[in-house]
Amino acid sequence: MCELFAMSSMAPTDIQFSLGIFAQHGAIGRSPIDGWGLAFYDECDVRLYKEPEPAGRSDWVSFIERHGQHSNLVLSHIRRATQGAISLRNTQPFVRELGGRAHVFAHNGDLPAIDRRMAGRWKRFHPIGQTDSEIAFCVLLEALSMLWVDRGVPSVADRASIIRGVAAEFRELGPANFLYTDGDVLFAHGHRRIQPGGTVAPPGLYSLRRTCRVDDEASTSSGVRIDMVGAAQEVMLFASVPLTEEPWDGLPQGELTAVRSGRQIPLA
Questions:
Q1: In the chain, how many domains are there?
Q2: Residue 172 domain boundaries
């Protein structure tokens, strides 16, 4: 299955990816990599890098590995195609504008028949590609758009309420692990995932809170190096599978987590 990763930190953080190493953490057998994408937030906009090909062949990945990107909000996706051709338009993460800011979404799972089951649920937002994941993003943004009509930032509670409702509909179709952010709050929804034994079961996402830097060896083995700069730094990480030996927590099935600036936001 595809691999998800996201980071939210209190202060902008220097983050470097070795995508080939990172992608192997959740790989079952010799699953091919059909594409990759990285979104680094810069205020309300994003620096988006993505390609519909294995990361090992990409000059862009070499550039990212050599030059760390500073950001306090990062979202990544490694694609193993199940729906849609191997092409740029089907490569995640997906980005759309709403309320004068970039919204980013990445999904891991399979939502068969979403195009028929949720037909007519998107009007402003239309899929460019052929994937169930992009249709899910369009449906989610359509539901959220009512909150952003005045270009102000809606309350976290209102956003979470809508996301929970839509996520529950996604779960009826199939595995619905996703990461979504509007540049203010990162929302992580955990569901089910193919486990090493071949069963489809929770957890579909894991989380980890850091307040200090881990050793270089652990960073190298995970494929994701995060330089913790500053005594007041706090970082929250999400990944499809644990990336290090640290105490990652599996998200319960159907749970929605919200994080802003590296700190989890309590949801009623």
A1: 1
A2: 3-265
